[in-house]
Amino acid sequence: MASSVWSGYLTFGLISMPVRLFSGARSSSISFHMLHRDDLTRIKQQLYCPTDNRVVERSEIVKGYEYRKDEYVVVEPEEIKKIEPRTAKTMEILEFVKSSEVDPIFFESSYYMTPEEAGRRPYALLTKALEESEYFAIAKLTMHNREYTVFLRPHEGGMMLHTMYYADE
User: Fold this and answer.
1) Which residues contact 115 (CB under 8 A, 6 or more apart)?
2) What is the distance between the alpha carbons of residues 132 and 114, in angstroms, rounded to a whole number?
3) Among 32, 82, 89, 114, which one is least packed by beta carbons within 10 Å?
4) In this structure, how many other beta carbons lie within 10 angstroms of the beta carbon of residue 58?
């Protein structure tokens, strides 16, 4: 089975259900590797510090935010976790809209949403309600350190999730 790209809880009102997201579509492309012409060995990139004039290990690297030209504040992984939005592990349904009001041109990426065992019943009820009402759910979700507005729609007995482009994109 494919590995999930996100797992957490889908919530609305007092209802919460554990779900997972799986990529719904993948673009296929040819990828090339950089090789040493003489022996066709893959080239490795090294992390280099120009100030110390040496190669550094990953363990020596930190993340920093440039607040002024060449001036940085270091941001530790624990600090990043502390400011993670609520939607990092919880996808919150904000409202429901008629499916006819949603223009698919704004769909960015598509994902299959599946329930965990404990969420099968509320997931099935929500899916059926969306099918019968011809409504989509609008939710907020954080994935890959970016918060998205998403649409949930019924699809072949389950649900699809679509991340959305904003109108200016």
Assistant:
1) 17, 18, 19, 122, 123, 124
2) 19
3) 32
4) 6
User: What is the per-residue pLDDT for 129?
Assistant: 95
Give the Cα separation of 93 and 123 in Å (integer).
13
Share in percent of the chain as helix, strand, coil (round to 5): 20, 45, 35
For position 146, what pLDDT does the model report? 84
Q: Hey, what domains does the chain have and what are their CATH numbers?
A: 6-25+85-164 (2.40.290.10), 48-81 (no CATH)
Could you state, in chain order, the average pLDDT of each consecutive group of 10 residues for the chain (169 residues)? 86 93 75 91 92 94 94 89 76 94 87 95 96 95 87 94 80
Alpha-carbon separation of residue 166 from 9, 20, 31, 106 (angstroms) = 24, 24, 29, 7
Distance between CA atoms of 81 and 76, rounded to whole angstroms? 9
- Two tokens, residue 97: 């809209």
Type of residue at 96: F
Q: Which two tokens stand for residue 67?
A: 């607040």
